[in-house]
Amino acid sequence: MVTHSAQAAQIEAYDAMAPLYAEYSGRYCAYLDAVDQLVIDRLKPGIRLLDLGSGDGRRLHKIAAHHGLTDVVAVEPSSAMAALCRKTTGFAVHQLFGDELDRLPQTGFDAITVLWNVFGHMADASVRLKTLGLLKAKLAPGGTIMLDVNNRHNRRAYGRWTVFRRCLIDALAFDDKRGDVHYQWQIGNQSLPSSGHLFTPAEMAGLFQRAGLGVAERLSVNYASGAVCDSPLDGQLFFRLRHGSSGRAGLRG
């Protein structure tokens, strides 16, 4: 990534969290299960799947097992998480960051998944854009990318008036740095520095357009309940993307 110290701190946090990751992610099972189901419903048997930011591999194993997928490649930069992912899934796991995907030899994937705000842990917009371009290059013709990100305009999480003010300010003078957040990650008895990014719907649309990717579908998923809706203001953002301009497309069978 661009900032090596920030990258090192992020990996340190994930390495430390690896033994407790199942417990941590269990706190958000309603949301994660809802996103997993959206992905499962849009895949079909026999496809080639790439997963970026696979964590401990439990979600990838669940998604792949539902359709009996065997041609699956995982990418996870944390060495501790990558080790868990290999043990959990049995799939090939490459220890790379998103902007290093040009080092991944495999290509021609029918579907690519990038789940639980992986893009929010990238250094900046230039890294996110590069990663999107590399993901696009890994897609087979007619392939699809599915991802979810934290939504800065999520009124269910931040309240109507806070989001109203954010929408107004962003409409008048957008600055993606407003979405950057820094916090301490409590992992066991350790407190490790971490960071992330909260996106706006328009910010994501701009990134996709610049990468030459069309939005085939956009949904919102409530972070507490897992409820799915169409409003871009009522949950975290889930996207299904394809090559080129927007339109209905993908692998939904």
From TrEMBL:
Q: Which UniProt keywords apply?
A: Methyltransferase, Transferase
Superkingdom per UniProt: Bacteria
Q: Which Pfam families match?
A: Methyltransf_23 (PF13489)
**What SUPFAM superfamilies does its record include?**
S-adenosyl-L-methionine-dependent methyltransferases
Question: What is one Gene Ontology biological process annotated in the Swiss-Prot or TrEMBL record?
Answer: methylation
Against InterPro entries, the record matches this protein to:
SAM-dependent_MTases_sf (IPR029063)
Report whether S-adenosyl-L-methionine shows up as a keyword of the record.
no
Q: Name one GO molecular function term.
A: methyltransferase activity
Record protein name field: Methyltransferase type 12
What organism is this sequence from? Verminephrobacter eiseniae (strain EF01-2)
